[in-house]
Amino acid sequence: xxxxxRILFVIAMVMAVGMGSGCGSKSSGGGISKPAAPTNLTxxxxxxxxxxxxxxxxxxxxxxxxxxxxxxxxxxxxxTATATNYTVKGLTNGTKYYFVVTAVNNAGESGYSxxxxxxxxxxxxxxxxxxxxxxxxxxxxxxxxxxxxxxxTNY
Length: 155
Prior knowledge:
By secondary structure, this protein is mainly β. It is built from one helix and ten strands; from the N terminus they run αββββββββββ. The chain has one helix at residues 2-19, and strands spanning 39-46, 49-55, 62-68, 76-81, 85-89, 97-105, 108-109, 116-118, 131-138, 141-147. Strands 3, 4, 6, 7 and 8 form a five-stranded antiparallel sheet that branches. A three-stranded antiparallel sheet has the order 1-2-5, with no helix packed on it. Strands 9-10 form a two-stranded antiparallel ribbon. β9 and β10 form a beta hairpin. The protein starts with a helix and ends in an 8-residue tail after the last strand.
């Protein structure tokens, strides 16, 4: 009969935990609700990366970051953040990416934020202005000379 008592005890414990006070609520975190989805997600491109920013979600302990190359997904989780910003690195320049973020706490994960999209591009550097510009007056014309600027393709 020891086995019969043990089974009864296990069943009673499962029922007590599953039916006890605080259970049956919308959360699994002891009265904690899932956080709301983050809002106002923005994406700022750079060379092979995108920096995301969003508004905090009350009760969130972290955020999951997802991306896709098609609007609406399917999304792939690319990282986790504890702040309200995250930089996704190693992206392909010239490819358009779509991003969403979810908020997470002990009760679970929120739905997706708004979708933000952008295309990472290589950094562009402007050449310095030409140096030592000299203007020489001539008959109905002016001759200009200067030192070349590194990286300039035309003037």
